[in-house]
Amino acid sequence: MMTISMLAVDLSKGSFQVCAVGSDGTVLYNRALSRARFALLLADQPACVVAMEACATSHHWGRVAQASGHEVRLVPAVYVKPFVKRQKNDRADAEAIAEAAARPRMRFVAVKSAETQGRAVAFRTHQCLVRQRTQLINALCGHLAEFGVVAPKGPANLKVLDEALAVEVADLPVAVRAIGTIYLDQIAGLTQVIERLADELETTSRTDADLRRLCTIPGIGPVTAGAVAAFAPDLDTFDSERNFAACLGLGPRQRSTGGKAKLGSVSKMGQTDIRRLLIVGAMSVIRWVVRKGGSANRWLTTLVARKPKMARTIWAVTTKQEDYRMA
User: What is the pTM of this model?
Assistant: First the structure.
């Protein structure tokens, strides 16, 4: 019987499609396994390559496979899609994963540790609660605007709405005041949790050397540093800062052919959370320079006239293990 050289797995919640491939590329079997049977297969199978699509649960199963001595290859889903033959089903997906993982120049995703995924959970929880608070504030502002009570945007201006609800206004029914109080209580509870999570991120950024180093860059705070630590791959794997910026989708979109280079706008093909935070941080730095009318830092001063290169700065301070220095 031919030895299995690769197990290509199409992951799911309870059922896993496993395609076993021999050393010559022959499909030995392609069948569905339950969660428990798949875990037993990884434990009993001699060391081989375990290939999966990079998804939410692939890092957990990647760690399980590595614990059993297997080599794990996580393939981005966009690189698997071209290898799907005709109809899309679990069997075809598993074969496509095996085909993509066997390509000699395929790019793989590194398996994340449990600690790194924990950072991602903390960051995403903070962002989720911020969005929920924003939704509640917008809803309350919209409801009260129908009765002529208007306040500027943002949680800092909730005091205006609180005072309006407390004052006896003839055009504001009692039921609306009661509903407004419910909104304010919910917003206050979310604000407490958000501030606690932000304090934990700030405390971690002070104690962790890598996060503290990132926070020395203008426009990068504990939240952005935490997002880089949670979602960015190992920066030492990039040959240059340009490659890291392109990985985040900050490079231009290309439509080049026939030797003629055609560059468009930002590709937006990389990690969404990091790219969004870097853009927000860069714009805050630019607004600060414009308000102050210049800066002692020449790099900050010239930001107004050119695009900020924060992703490249992150790559430089991380790979060189140095704090940011003004140019």
Answer: 0.77
